[in-house]
C-alpha cells in the first residue's frame, strides 16, 4: 500500500492522471474501470488536456463504468454514462465499441448484471479509481452485514442519497433509491487500484482507515487493506488526521 500526499485537489488530479497515462503507455489497450462523482473530474480534465496536446492516445482503451443509478439511461443528464461522455469520452479518441456500461433500464436487470460481471471477469480490470463516500463506501458498496463480490443492485443508504443530492437539485428524495455497483471481488482483483480524496470532509475517513487494521463490512473501504497494489492519492486537508508515523512513511516514499 502506498500513500501520496499532495498540496491540493489540483495536484491530486494531476498526479492521478499521470498514473493513468503511465499505465496507458505501457498497455495501450488498458482496461479502465471509470469512476463518476466529483473526485475524478479534475483527473478527467488532465487526461483530456494530455490528449489535445498530443501526449496521449486512447484509441485502444477499454472501459467499464464502475456504477450507475437504476432507471437512468444514457440520455439522462444525471446518469453516470452521461457524466463519462461529458467529462471524458466525448473529448478523446476512444473507440466507443470499447466502452461498456450496465444497462440500468434493462427489463431483466439481474441477467444484465450477471452478463456485465462476466465481461469484467473475462477482460480483467487493469485500473480502477474511487473516492470514499461519507459512510465509507467505495463505488456503491454500502456499509452492511455482508459485501457482495460481483456487480449487483444495491439500495442506497440515506447518507449516500444526501451526499449525492446536489446533482439532483439538492433534493435527496430525487436521488434514485437503487443503484448498480461493481462488487468487492472485482475491486480486489483490479491490478492497479487508486483512491483519491481531497478536502477536510474526508479527513476522519482517512484517519479511521489508517488508524485501524480490521476489515469491517460497515466500513467498506477497509477491505482495501487486503489489496496487493493500492495507492491513496490525497491532499493535505484530507490527510490532516492521518497518524504521524504513517505520514512520515508516506513522505519518505515508503510502502505502508
From TrEMBL:
Gene Ontology MF term list: glucosamine-6-phosphate deaminase activity; identical protein binding
Extract one GO BP annotation from the record: N-acetylglucosamine catabolic process
Q: Where is the Glucosamine/galactosamine-6-phosphate isomerase domain?
A: 12-225
For this UniProt record, give its keywords in alphabetical order, as a comma-separated list: Carbohydrate metabolism, Hydrolase
Which top-level enzyme class is recorded in the Swiss-Prot or TrEMBL entry?
Answer: hydrolase
A GO CC term assigned to this protein in UniProt: cytoplasm
Q: What is its EC number?
A: 3.5.99.6
Residue ranges annotated as coiled coil are: none
CDD domains from the entry? GlcN6P_deaminase
Q: Name one Pfam family in it.
A: Glucosamine_iso
- Asked if Ligase is a keyword of the record, the answer is no
Looking up PANTHER family in the UniProt record yields:
GLUCOSAMINE-6-PHOSPHATE ISOMERASE
The protein here is known as: Glucosamine-6-phosphate deaminase
Organism listed in the record: Faecalibaculum rodentium
Question: What is the organism lineage in this UniProt record?
Answer: Bacteria, Bacillati, Bacillota, Erysipelotrichia, Erysipelotrichales
Amino acid at each position: 500500500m502506498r500513500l501520496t500526499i499532495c498540496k491540493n485537489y489540483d495536484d491530486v488530479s494531476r498526479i492521478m492522471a499521470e498514473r493513468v497515462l503511465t499505465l496507458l503507455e505501457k498497455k495501450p489497450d488498458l482496461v479502465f474501470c471509470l469512476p463518476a462523482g466529483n473526485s475524478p473530474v479534475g483527473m478527467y480534465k488532465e487526461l483530456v488536456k494530455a490528449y489535445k496536446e498530443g501526449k496521449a492516445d486512447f484509441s485502444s482503451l477499454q472501459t467499464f463504468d464502475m456504477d450507475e443509478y437504476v432507471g437512468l439511461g444514457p440520455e439522462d443528464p444525471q446518469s453516470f454514462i452521461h457524466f463519462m461522455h461529458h467529462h471524458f469520452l466525448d473529448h478523446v479518441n476512444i473507440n466507443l465499441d470499447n466502452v461498456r456500461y450496465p444497462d440500468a433500464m434493462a427489463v431483466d436487470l439481474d441477467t444484465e448484471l450477471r452478463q456485465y460481471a462476466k465481461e469484467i471477469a473475462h477482460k480483467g480490470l487493469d485500473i480502477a479509481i474511487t473516492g470514499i463516500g461519507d459512510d465509507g463506501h467505495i463505488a456503491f458498496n454500502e456499509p452492511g452485514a455482508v459485501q457482495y463480490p460481483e456487480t449487483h443492485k444495491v439500495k442506497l443508504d440515506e447518507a449516500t442519497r444526501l451526499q449525492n443530492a446536489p446533482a439532483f437539485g439538492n433534493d435527496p428524495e430525487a436521488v434514485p433509491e437503487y443503484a448498480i455497483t461493481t462488487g468487492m471481488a472485482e475491486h480486489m482483483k483490479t491490478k492497479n487500484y487508486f483512491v483519491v480524496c481531497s478536502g477536510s470532509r474526508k479527513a476522519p475517513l482517512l484517519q479511521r482507515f489508517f488508524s485501524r487494521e480490521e476489515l469491517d463490512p460497515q466500513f467498506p473501504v477497509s477491505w482495501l487493506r487486503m489489496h496487493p497494489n493500492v495507492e491513496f492519492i490525497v491532499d493535505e486537508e484530507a490527510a490532516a488526521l492521518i497518524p504521524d508515523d504513517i505520514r512520515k512513511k508516506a513522505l519518505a516514499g515508503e510502502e505502508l
